[in-house]
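User: Need the bound-state model for magnesium ion:
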Amino acid sequence: MKGKVIAVANMKGGVGKTATVIGLAESLAARGADTLVVDLDPQANASICLAGDQFLKTIIEQGNTIDAFLEDRFMRGQKDAALEKRIRTNISNVTHLGRQLPLALLASSSELRLVERNMIFTLTKSGMSLDRIVEALYQIIKDELKRTRKSYDYILFDCAPGISVLTEVSIRLANLVIVPTIPDFLSTYGLKSFCSNLWSGPIASQSNLKQPKRLPHVLITRRRPTRDHERTRVRLRSESAKDDTRFSVFATEIPERAAIAQALGTIHVHPTFSQKWRDGTDIMLADLVKEVREVLHGS
Ligand SMILES: Nc1ncnc2c1ncn2[C@@H]1O[C@H](COP(=O)(O)OP(=O)(O)OP(=O)(O)O)[C@@H](O)[C@H]1O
Ligand SMILES: [Mg+2]
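Assistant: Bound-state model below.
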């Protein structure tokens, strides 16, 4: 039951990955689930949304980030560099029924891009293939998370846009991969390419890497009442119903709402969960939580 890993990923940028991570994490936590958010994006958007800018600065100065861990482990060869002690617990400024949400954060910083780049450069120079690097990173993060998984009900990865080695690792570690997708032409074009790259294309089929545990689950996001969005969401649903489908689609859809953009910017106040997720967005998150739990626990 414990330590279910959910990766939120899409090659396409700006589709609502971070909004999904924050909304889902807070909604799970509001239901009493101990939840950890792991930020795997050098933009550090999830980190700033949860920790606020001042506290994030302190976290980065103290070296409590995923990039500091990777640097210590891969570049400095520190075998005892631990991921767990970099996790900041009780991070949330949000309360529910008078209690702080049980949320923890493993933050990232803008250094992550450089660390990832240097890591790949150094390891390929020493003769390691990219597959081998993904495999090594997968094993290290899996081992590091072994103990951590016992402390949390859910661990959510906020992946960067594109396909980084960390995204490749995340989708293999995850019990569920959520792919937020805007129902328009370019986003769904990117969705096909993302799915075939990681689930069924040459990277997936020709390498010895561990395969993802289940098909990706598309979450329709930022839906607007336009003909284009309506047509595309119907098409996505009919494609997902085919026998040879490459993805599932959640019944829950997240519309474009000012309340969601505002919720992400709520970092300097201490709202309750329902003050933060206004305008019916708390209900949508509850629906999403229900579906996620059904996929993960079958109930
Ligand atoms: N449902 C929504 N309604 C309105 N605005 C939204 C919604 N979802 C996300 N946004 C806004 O859209 C922008 C992009 O969202 P978000 O940062 O979650 O996307 P992302 O996929 O994580 O982007 P990136 O690829 O850069 O990491 C943000 O400004 C966010 O506030
Ligand atoms: Mg993001």
